[in-house]
From TrEMBL:
Its EC number is 2.8.3.19. It is an enzyme of class 2 (transferase). Gene3D superfamilies: Crotonobetainyl-coa:carnitine coa-transferase, domain 1 (3.40.50.10540), formyl-coa transferase, domain 3 (3.30.1540.10). Residues 349-375 are annotated as: Disordered. It holds the Pfam family CoA_transf_3. The keyword Acetylation does not apply. This is Acetyl-CoA:oxalate CoA-transferase. GO terms for molecular function: CoA-transferase activity.
Length: 375
């Protein structure tokens, strides 16, 4: 990587070729791009399919695409053709990282797999995001976020106790896969400073979905009991769930006895913390329903937002349940720089805050470019 000024971003001078589409890969490369990496997004002639995943649209481009492709340059390339393959090799000559989410075997078919490229570009870090990896019982099969949620147990523990298994309401597996891919790339870049060599990074939706099973996996390992759905209630902590107030639900996340005593004091019911049924977390779990009933009666006299603020300031984690528009408009959201605006563009800011080399908005998501290198 070339030497650059520190205020250009923590990854300034790092060149990334991004062949990925949809979400996991693009989210990974946007993280890198936000922090200064020079990311070239290469799309097939028809473009990343998420350009059409609307409405809503910004111009002719779906908001879905806009949300994960800022700070990137764009190019269109047909890698199934020799001219496209030749141009990609030219671009990789001075690249640090290649990110792709082709079905395993596709790039190999074109002579662009890791083993094909390693001889020519020994320092190249090749990150593949796939559903299941290239081998094993499910190797090479296509993977999607919702299917990973279903297959890996996430849906089985999400939803009401008496309801159906439910998909998490956002593509959590894709996004965590993108995060893990970004972490893997940073690890490999760090190791390369010692060895001078690149390596292959094998990041799958399947693995990442399984990694999210905390605390359900350890609970199962050490109890032998299959975890069940419990709605918003935590399997190990009480009270840790949504409860009704006079103005809508509030989430209480009471993690220890001191917080529970402060909750009781704030609700003008100090005797609650002295009740033997609620003396410890284990006691509160055993008497969860009576605790819920007692708290609901007390909360009925309060407004959710005001009480949540009062509890937070008293050291008790609590929050009114907000809608997306309310969360994005919250004063603290603005204070943290978590909404970016430039012209017609709006986006969620980077949650990764560095003091000297912060993330910046340098480029808007690229328009679909005309095909390159196809004579």
């Amino acid at each position: 990587m070339a030497h650059t000024l520190p205020n250009a971003g923590a990854l300034a001078g790092c060149k990334v070729i991004d062949l990925s589409r949809v979400l996991g890969g693009p989210y990974c490369t946007q993280i890198l791009a936000d922090h200064g990496a020079d990311v070239l997004k290469i799309e097939p002639p028809g473009g990343d399919e998420t350009r059409g995943w609307g409405p809503p649209f910004l111009g002719e481009t779906a908001s879905y695409f806009v949300g994960v492709n800022r700070n990137k340059d764009g190019m269109t390339l047909d890698l199934s053709q020799p001219a496209g393959q030749e141009l990609l090799r030219h671009l990789l000559a001075d690249a640090d990282v290649l990110v792709e989410n082709f079905k395993p075997g596709t790039l190999e078919k074109w002579g662009l797999g890791y083993e094909d490229l390693k001889a020519a570009f020994p320092a190249l870090i090749h990150c593949r995001v796939s559903g299941f990896g290239s081998d094993g019982p499910l190797g090479g099969l296509p993977g999607y976020d919702a299917c990973a949620q279903a297959m890996c147990g996430l849906m089985s523990v999400n939803g009401d106790a008496d309801g159906e298994a439910t998909r998490v309401g956002l593509p959590v597996v894709d996004m965590v896969t993108g995060l893990n891919a970004a972490v893997a790339i940073l690890l490999a870049l760090n190791e390369r400073t010692r060895s001078g060599l690149g390596q292959f990074l094998d990041i799958t939706l399947y693995d990442c979905a399984l990694s999210l099973l905390h605390p359900h996996a350890p609970n199962y390992f050490y109890s032998g009991k299959v975890p069940q759905r419990s709605g918003n209630a935590h399997p190990n902590i009480a009270p840790y769930e949504t409860l009704p107030t006079a103005s809508g639900p509030i989430f209480l996340a009471v993690g220890n006895n001191r917080q529970f005593a402060m909750l009781a004091q704030t609700l003008d019911a100090p005797a609650l913390a002295e009740d033997a049924r609620y003396a410890t977390n284990a006691d509160r779990l055993r008497h969860r329903q009576s605790l819920r009933d007692d708290l609901s009666a007390l909360l009925a006299r309060h407004e959710a937002a005001a009480l949540a603020d009062q509890l937070l300031r008293a050291g008790v984690p609590a929050a009114a349940v907000q809608t997306v528009d309310q969360a994005l408009a919250h004063p603290h959201t603005r204070h943290r720089g978590m909404v970016l605006e430039q012209g017609d563009y709006k986006g969620v800011g980077s949650p990764i805050k560095l003091s000297r080399t912060p993330a910046t908005l340098r480029k808007l998501p690229p328009d679909l470019a005309p095909p390159a290198g196809q004579d």
